[in-house]
Amino acid sequence: MLMQNIPWLVMMIVLPLVGAMFCFLFPQRVKLLGLITALVIVVSVTALASQVVEQGALRYAVGGWGAPLGINLYVDGLSLLMLLVTALVGLAISVYSIAYFNQEKSQHFWPLWMLLWTALNALFLSADLFNLYVTLELLGLSAVALVALAGGANALGAAMRYLFVSLLGSLFYLLALALLYHSFATVDIAILAQRIEATPAVWAAMALMTAGLLLKTALFPLHFWLPPAHANAPAPVSALLSALVVKASFYILLRLWLEVFPLPNAALVQFLGLLGSGAVLWGGVQALRQTRLKMLIAYSTVAQLGYLFIAFPLATSMAWKGALYLLISHALAKSSMFLAAGNLQLFGGHDRITHLDRVAQRLPLTLAAFALAGVSIMGLPPSGGFVGKWLLLDAALRTGQWWWAVILILGSLLAAAYIFKVIGHAFTQAEVPHEEGEVSRMMEWVAFVLALAAIVLGLIASWPLALMDIGTPFNSGVAQ
Amino acid sequence: MNWDAMLPLFILASSLVPGLIIFTLPEEAVRTRVTLNMTGALIKVALVGFVIWGVLNGHHYETRLPFLPGLDLVLRADALSILFITLSTVLWLVTTIYAIGYLENSPHRSRFFGFFSLCVTATIGVALAGNLITFVLFYELLTLAAYPLIVHRGTEESHRAGRTYLIYTITGGALLLVGTVWLYGLAGSLEFTHRGFISELVESHRSALIIIFTLLIAGLGVKAALVPFHGWLPQAMVAPAPVSALLHAVAVVKAGAFGIVRVVYDVYGIEFAAGLGVTLPLAILAAVTIIYGSLRALMQDDLKRRLAFSTVSQISYIILGVAIVGPMATIGGLVHLVHQGVMKITLFFCAGNLAETLGIHKISEMDGVGRRMPWTMAAFTIAAFGMIGAPPLAGFVSKWYLGLGALEAGQDWVIFVLIGSSLLNAAYFLPVLHSAWFKKPMGNWPAERSFGRMETALTLLVPPVITACLVLLLGLLASAPFSALQWAQFITTLEYAP
Question: How far is A150 from chain B (nearest CA, A)?
Fold first, then answer.
């Protein structure tokens, strides 16, 4: 009963924040403190999930102050799923990082990573636009700092560019926020949804917010900053950025379009779909052209993000669920891929694709992880990626918009091409070298378990899909 | 627990579980690996035998698991799946013995046998699939599981073959997927049903159904090596001999042909497919493939390439049998599914023996090889005559029913295709036999290995001898109960309205 009385929503934000402070205060013990925090967060999200499954969507007024004055937290199926994936990927990356970073790097990594986790959880729970802004800034700043962690000119340059993009995106968002607050005197999503009207100010706000968030989500052609930032960061950070951070701004976009701006605008949604298609094709082609493994994976992220925007012109409940399913499976598969790439790089000292064969044969488990994650990225059954693509394809054909189906298929073919470009190197006649690398078994297993999770997601589809219905986030707005 | 609902799952697990364990084994664990392989293969034979017995006694074996919203993962042992699982289970057992002998002391055996088992698991899944989505799942799994086997040797040539294979099959898989999703959107169901489940849509969605049919057949035709989608198959010849045997007789190519059978009979229903006017183009495509494959086979000097083009041609007999609308032709096509498998696996085993024992890869090197390896060449001869269609061998039975079926359906042109193809078969097999038995050896063999008093290793010799005997028996005992022919006749009664 005690478990039922704890406001787990708040705990989701407090726990990583406290963890961050402890990591900062006791730099000698960061690894232990970080791992404990990660485990406690997983427990807390499980408790929250059981609460939500029992009671439906929850709203919590922090300190008893309701909207429009106080801070409101809100959790429905959509946010819960994002929290669950964040916790799962977060735990895996935490375990991996213990082995990956030396003590000195760890002292920088852990406080930042815990802050990032706080920002993510708070973002997924925010019920008003201003809190979303605050969490978005916190997220962006900690992410930039993490990219810079790798050191070196490449990483610093990428981090700098990332910082500018992040600030610019937030600035757009903040401007739009001011416009909305001026017109409607509230920033609470639910209240705003009732008051909103199609005035020029709203249109301007909608355009500004969308543009800012698209920049942060790295939708083609605003993706230029993503590949260098994701490819030059340390492996666990790359995994975090690709799996979770870019998804956060997409999540805000989804909330806005579903709830705040339920203004059907055919031209705009088609435009988003078009940009998404551009991302799928351009990202795929660029991934195929890369000579470095981490750049290839980063461009794959650009392509995979494109799929999410194909749901906008389809706009049925099935399409939203398909996009969300792709988002979750991509989070698992892509973090696995980056961690696998980290293993290969650590072992071989480089990540040039053409010279991977000796390394790949020495780390079969890592390669298996990459291959399994690849199955999900390609959208082949059984995998989470397949379920997502199936739902999107079904929605495209049912609504008679077959051209999006063509894009989905072309994207899968491109993905197959760039993934097999890597996997082919496992089957060469290169001799198996016998020198020992510094890749621990734990790091290999973490990558493998994440990939396996992406596959399993294809076999238990009914459960996450049922979860998405809690609070019916997809039955309002554009979905109608 | 309900055993009838679990049995299809056990049949899958009997190759999946050993395969997964084998992946984790170190290279030196030869004995454990052999034990696992053989145990899995034998258990599968026993389970399949039990299923046949059960089905005859009125049991209904079906596993149903929730998969996608509104769609289940269904594994069902119906008459058609039993035909295919029996074939693949028996031939898997034989091929496993052969592969153990063939790969002795070569590197990466754990990887090889792991994917080998996965491949068989996927094939069994394709056979047992009770609806189109389950079929697609295992079909794609097969695509992926076969790739490491094709590139197993790791040479530049095998990588090229692997790439070609992937380009063809992944594109094919994508077409199949689009067709499946579209069909689901229209019909609201994907459950395989005797005589099809689209009858209500024929009036309202005629053109959509024709496009979907084309998508499905194109997707399946890639694996079944229908012209013009056959390009990958001859290239895939660089794979080790047991892989070629498996690819051509049991797994990949057969899965495509089996899929076409399923789509025509249990998705569209043969009568509705004929009503849509899609069967005649399919028959013509199959006929073109038969003749084209034979012509290309004639031009090859590389033995395995000749056999590969022969497969291109022979697989289309199955499709031809399906596309000539009539019960007799159906029997001919279905029975060829089994007969072609047994004959072609024999030929590939023999080709592998020649390569392993004497280093022979080309037909021009085969002069007088019959005296050096009499058992191998005897098996080869039986299978080759079977392919040509000489009575009383298995191939004759298939061709006989195909011919009868064509006449019964009033499609007389098919007779000319059959005669032409048989002549071509003779033209590309008889010279091989002639030089093997009647010409004098040219001197030293390219790369001879000695096996004492035996002509080659026992594990390499026994499998082709067994399958050659099967070729003989399937022909001689065609009308005995439980023969492939009897079973095909039984299936046919289910697919045609009384």
Answer: 35
